[in-house]
Write a structure and sequence with these properties.
- The structure is a single chain.
- By secondary structure, the chain is mostly helical.
- The protein has a domain at about 80-330.
- The chain contains 24 helices and no strands.
- The protein has helices spanning about 10-30, 40-55, 60-95, 95-110, 115-130, 130-150, 155-170, 175-185, 190-220, 225-235, 245-255, 260-280, 280-285, 295-310, 315-320, 330-350, 355-365, 370-385, 390-405, 410-425, 435-440, 445-450, 455-470, 480.
- Helix 3 (about 60-95) packs parallel to helix 21 (about 435-440), helix 4 (about 95-110) crosses helix 6 (about 130-150) and helix 4 (about 95-110) runs antiparallel to helix 10 (about 225-235).
- The two termini are about 35 Å apart.
- About 55% of the residues are buried.
Length: about 475
């Protein structure tokens, strides 16, 4: 049997400190393009350091390689969904689904309450379907288009989308993370959701209030003439009508029916392609090369929408940017980031470097408040180091569960804390799977929208305040103790 040495605190700190410095250098040197390769190299070199520490401590290369392969395997489900979301965005742009959402959004949403309305709308959709990812890729993309039309800030809008999407996802019994957290902590699903209300609802309310005030300040920005210009561009290039929303309604229905995300999004993408062929005849004809017949040209255009997205020239540069995008190719950089990040996280876990941090934290976490704060900090740290929200729930959950029971704390305290620290903060980290996904879909860096994802920022802070004040911290009952 292989004999290995226990990792020291120096072992654990070395790759993490290198990663922090190299990621900081990446952002400094390359700016917004840091996630297009530089961050991946920083993660790769940090993985190499963790591997060397593992070899030093007696782990064989075969064991470490197996851990890396397993780590990458964990990301394949997310990568499949990400690729299909790219296709969905491409076909929905071509079919007129996204342009129609933008058109009607400009008709009914007032600039003064747009940010708050975006947050609430995403919350309702995410709670209904249990997926922050699907919400951002559909409603979120359309809301960014509406924001452009209203002359409002896209970065603030992205913060509102993230806030609403993660609030709804967190409280939905259909959500994977909402089911995962109580499973890890050993609590009941609906007890877990009920207990989360105490930190989640006030945080969301505060976030919405902030968005309302920001909307009032931005109300004078929108120009009626510009909105009319955008509507004219949309109507002149696309067939606009409520029937164009059928692909969206179909996807939401499939999600409500609990169909797995990949086939549901795939059906939505294919339906978008079919809708394009049926309802966007003039648009397709205008996009076809003069040397191609309509049949050949339409086939090539739809096919391209799946793998390379859709591109249009309207004569308005900002609208061209808004109405172009999508395709699987557009997601390649994001999938690269996810795979390398999970590579690093899997080695850190296998070599025992993450566990070193937790043991060190428990030595100073004496009170209930400090224990819950330490759990949240560990979840955030795991999101940064392991780069995946599922690992940020599972690993701290396994590590702290016995300590919560030892201190007489009900399991719902742990499951709620895992979500307050793990689920909520994952989209704020650029190299985390969630942060990378959101950047791929919304085309806005987490380093930018994180300052406006108020719900995601407030929730962990409120959870810490509750912990130290003893608000809604449930103790184990005598019945539990007898078990």
């Amino acid at each position: 049997m292989q004999e290995t040495k226990q990792a020291t605190i120096f072992d654990a700190l070395l790759p993490v400190l290198f990663l922090i410095c190299s990621l900081g250098g990446s952002v400094y040197l390359f700016g917004d393009s840091s996630s297009s390769g530089p961050n991946q190299i920083a993660l790769l070199f940090s993985t190499a350091i963790a591997l060397l520490i593992g070899l030093k401590n007696g782990f064989s290369w075969a064991v470490l390689e197996e851990a890396m392969i397993k780590g990458i395997t964990l990301s394949l489900g997310a990568i499949l969904i990400l690729f299909m979301v790219g296709s969905l965005i491409g076909t929905w742009l071509l079919s007129g689904t996204v342009p129609t959402l933008i058109y009607y959004g400009l008709q009914v949403i007032n600039p003064s309450w747009f940010y708050a309305a975006s947050c609430i709308l995403c919350a309702i959709v995410a709670m209904s379907i249990g997926s922050s990812w699907t919400t951002a890729a559909t409603i979120g993309v359309a809301l960014l288009g509406v924001a452009t039309g209203l002359g409002l800030d896209q970065v603030v809008t992205a913060g509102a989308v993230i806030s609403g999407a993660y609030f709804g996802d967190k409280l939905s019994p259909l959500s994977e993370t909402t089911n995962l957290a109580p499973a890890v902590a050993g609590s009941n699903l609906f007890d877990h959701i009920h207990h989360m209300l105490w930190t989640t609802v006030p945080s969301f309310f505060i976030a919405v209030v902030i968005f309302v005030f920001m909307g009032f300040n931005a109300a004078d920005v929108a120009e009626a003439s510009r909105i009319n210009e955008i509507n004219e561009i949309l109507q002149s290039h696309f067939n606009i009508g409520l029937i164009m929303l059928v692909p969206l309604l179909t996807l939401l229905t499939l999600a409500l029916k609990k169909m797995p995300a990949f086939p549901a999004v795939a059906i939505g993408a294919v339906l978008g392609a079919v809708w394009a062929l049926i309802f966007q005849h003039d648009l397709i004809a205008a996009q076809i090369a003069s040397t191609d017949s309509y049949l050949v040209g339409a086939t090539k255009l739809v096919w391209t929408a799946f793998f390379d997205g859709f591109s249009i020239k309207t004569g308005d540069e900002s609208m061209d940017s808004l109405l172009s995008g999508g395709g699987m190719a557009g997601m390649l950089n994001t999938t690269w980031l996810i795979m390398i990040a999970l590579l690093f996280g899997s080695v850190m876990e296998k070599v025992g470097l993450l566990e070193v941090f937790v043991k060190s934290i428990l030595k100073v976490a004496k009170s209930t408040g400090s224990l819950i704060t330490a759990t949240i900090a560990t979840c955030i740290g795991t999101n940064m180091i392991a780069a995946d929200q599922y690992m940020a729930i599972v690993m701290p959950g396994r590590m702290f569960k016995k300590e919560y029971e030892k201190r007489g704390l009900d399991n719902v305290n742990l499951s709620r804390t895992l979500e307050d620290g793990g689920t909520i903060t994952s989209p704020l980290i650029p190299w985390n799977t969630c942060g990378a996904y959101m950047q791929g879909v919304l085309a806005i860096s987490p380093l930018d929208y994180a300052f406006y994802a108020f719900f995601n920022l407030i929730n962990p802070v409120l959870a810490v305040i509750y912990a130290y004040l003893g608000i809604k911290i449930l103790k184990i009952t005598p019945k539990h103790l007898s078990n």
